[in-house]
Amino acid sequence: RSRLLAISDATMVKIPSGPFIRGSERGQPNARSEESPQQTLNISAFFIDRLPVTVRQFRAYLAATAIEPSAGWERHNAEDEPDFPVVYVTWDEAAAYAKWAGKRLLTEAEWEKAARGTDAREFPWGDELPDAELACFQSEGRSPVFSHPMGASPGGCLDMAGNAFEWVQDWYNRDYYSVSPDTDPKGPNVGSKKVLRGGSFVHEAFALRVATRGRYAPNERRANHGFRCAWSLT
């Protein structure tokens, strides 16, 4: 796929350049420092997938590239659930799909700006605690990616809270916020774990906050780990 095709894709929305407030001073005691200091960042314009990458889309990628999915992948990504977010993918597999699609993974800061907008809200839809209309959480399984339109982010992205935890580009460092640049931060240069954002169907409400940071080794695969893609001119 060409980059022009990627940006003309109707499933992507543009997040304009400008400031937003990243982080929180109100995290759980054992996670508060990794979400702080709360500060204003400036982020260049980019495009983001309106929806997480689905089972249907990832199956098309596997077919087009003749890549054999990992053992157990089929069990978590049933053919009769094509509109569920794809899961059980590693960070490396997510990055490879994004490259094939002419896109890339989001930076952690881009993900948070797209999820919360510019008013420092707690959740993509505002400050109201999640319920079954707003997000898929504390559930036995995932839901189709278009199941929670009331939970849309300010830019119109769905499923940025709950359903599938989303891999992003950055390495994880608990103290990164205290040293990161205030314009287009891209995370630490090295690390042992990659960041995931947004919580998932197995998480409690608190983990669905836009400031919550997850982390796993890039070669790990879980039944609640998915992703979405981004595109930009730079």
Question: Can you walk through the features of this model?
Answer:
With 234 residues, this protein is an alpha+beta fold. It is built from five helices and ten strands. The strands form three sheets. The protein has a four-stranded antiparallel β-sheet with strand order 1-4-10-5, with helices on both faces. The protein has a four-stranded mixed β-sheet with strand order 8-7-6-9. The longest helix has 11 residues, at 55-65. The chain is globular, with a radius of gyration of 16 Å.
List keywords for this structure.
234 residues; alpha+beta; four-stranded antiparallel beta sheet; four-stranded mixed beta sheet; 17% helix; globular; disordered N terminus
Question: Share of helix among residues?
Answer: 10-25%
Task: Estimate the strand proportion.
Answer: 15-25%
Characterize the biggest β-sheet: 4 strands, antiparallel
- Which H/E pattern describes the elements? HEEEEHHHEHEEEEE
The backbone outline, from C-alpha atoms, is globular
Give the helix/strand class: alpha+beta
End-to-end separation: 18 Å
- Number of helical stretches of at least 4 residues: 5
Cα Rg = 16 Å
Low-confidence stretches: 1-9
Would you tell me the overall average pLDDT?
A: 93
Biggest sheet strand line-up: 1-4-10-5
Q: How many strand elements?
A: 10
Concise summary:
The chain is α+β, with helices and mostly antiparallel strands and 234 residues long.
Element layout with pairings:
Layout: H1 3-8, E1 12-15, E2 18-22, E3 39-43, E4 46-49, H2 55-65, H3 73-76, H4 91-100, E5 104-105, H5 108-116, E6 165-171, E7 194-197, E8 213-216, E9 225-227, E10 229-231
Parallel strand pairs: 6-9
Antiparallel strand pairs: 1-4, 2-3, 4-10, 5-10, 6-7, 7-8
